[in-house]
Amino acid sequence: MKRMKKAIVFIFLLSSFAPILFGQDKPLTQAEYVKMLYGLQKNPSGKATIVEALRKRGIEFVVTDGIRSLTRSKAANDDELKRALEEADRRRQNPASTKLPSQAESEAILAKAREATLLALDEMPDFVVKQRITRSAAYAGTGNWRPYSNLVIAVSYSTEKGEQYQVLVLDGARVDAQKGSNYGGLTGATTAGEFVENLQKLFKPESKTKFEVSETDVVGNRQALVFTYQINIENNKNGGVVYRNVLTQSSPAGEVGKIWVDREAFRILRLEFNLTDIERGFPITAFQSSTDYDWVKIADENYLLPAKSDAKFTVRESNILTQQRNVILFRNYQKYGSEVRVLDDDITPTPEPTPTPTKPD
């Protein structure tokens, strides 16, 4: 009799967990997805669970504008979640086109991407470009960004001098600033390295970067293969984070991220990364960045260069966590030595859409 009771209890427990044990391979229903979105209000860290479910299980429902709007509002306009939803919808519509290639094919694509990227960096032209930067702040985790500053910066790049910066406009007022290797005495969050360093360190032998194929995606109208990567802190020689206040402080860091590789041209269309292992007690507790690349013409030649960058810093001050955000639009690439002119719309910049890379003519 006791054995029978145990058997009954076991069967009851198994039936209770059956949806969890056996239902995880079934595509998400719209009702499941919406319930998960609403759960983010109580548990913001649940975003990773939703992204994983979208990627592993897929969806059985059509992604409408209403679903997109709900995703933006409930997930604080999170880019990773939006991308995972769109990719799940493409997989629902055309499973064959979103199937991952074999390990051998993936490694071949990555090898070609390494070769193409390093060759392009070696052949990087000397140029000047205008950066239009919107800086915002929010309490950490809220996503309620409030713009507090606009900048226009002339950036020149040459093989000899690297990146040089000159502030032209600060909050609508023209600035007569000197050119230098950084933003000089400018206060607030700043970034650098979008042109060469961020891509170069991925494929440096000393970085010992570990890559793993992750998923497929579409960047603009280009089919892309997504690889996750990791650079351990001891190998990230040119990485780390700097905090400038009364004193300048720095901390080494590791790096984890993703690259989106064009499956035809084998060029990197998008780069995302988070810094890891930042020193305990350092004012900047987290940093994440994304850069979209697009084809531009300089002196009648096509080059794949940054079009938009989005960087977020989490800062602890007086035991309060806040976030600083820089959204940078790269405009008007020209040959080195050209004058960067300040236009009327630079004084009052307007938001612009994320670029959609196309293959050059």
Number of helices: 8
Number of domains: 2
Give the biggest sheet.
11 strands, antiparallel
Total beta-strand segments: 13
What is the name of the CATH topology of the largest domain?
outer membrane lipoprotein receptor (LolB), chain A
| CATH class wording of the largest domain | Mainly Beta
Rg (C-alpha, Å): 23 Å
Which CATH architecture of the largest domain is right? Clam
Describe the structure.
It is a single chain. With 361 residues, the chain is α+β, with helices and mostly antiparallel strands. The protein folds into 2 domains: 2-93, no CATH class; 110-344, outer membrane lipoprotein receptor (LolB), chain A. Helices cover 26% and strands 36% of the residues. It contains 8 helices and 13 strands. Strands 4-3-2-1-13-12-11-10-9-6-5 form an 11-stranded antiparallel sheet, covered by helices on one side. Strands 7-8 form a two-stranded antiparallel ribbon. A hairpin with a 3-residue loop joins strand 2 and strand 3. Helix 3 packs parallel to helix 5 (79-93).
Search tags:
two-stranded antiparallel ribbon; 8 helices; 13 strands; outer membrane lipoprotein receptor (LolB), chain A; single chain; 36% strand; eleven-stranded antiparallel sheet; disordered N terminus; alpha+beta; 361 residues
In short:
The chain is an alpha+beta fold.
Topology, element by element:
Elements: H1 2-22, H2 30-39, H3 47-57, H4 65-74, H5 79-93, H6 103-122, E1 127-139, E2 146-158, E3 162-170, E4 173-174, H7 197-200, E5 210-219, E6 222-231, E7 241-244, E8 248-251, E9 254-262, E10 268-276, E11 284-298, E12 301-317, E13 320-335, H8 344-347
Antiparallel strand pairs: 1-2, 1-13, 2-3, 3-4, 5-6, 6-9, 7-8, 9-10, 10-11, 11-12, 12-13
Helix pairs in contact: 3-5
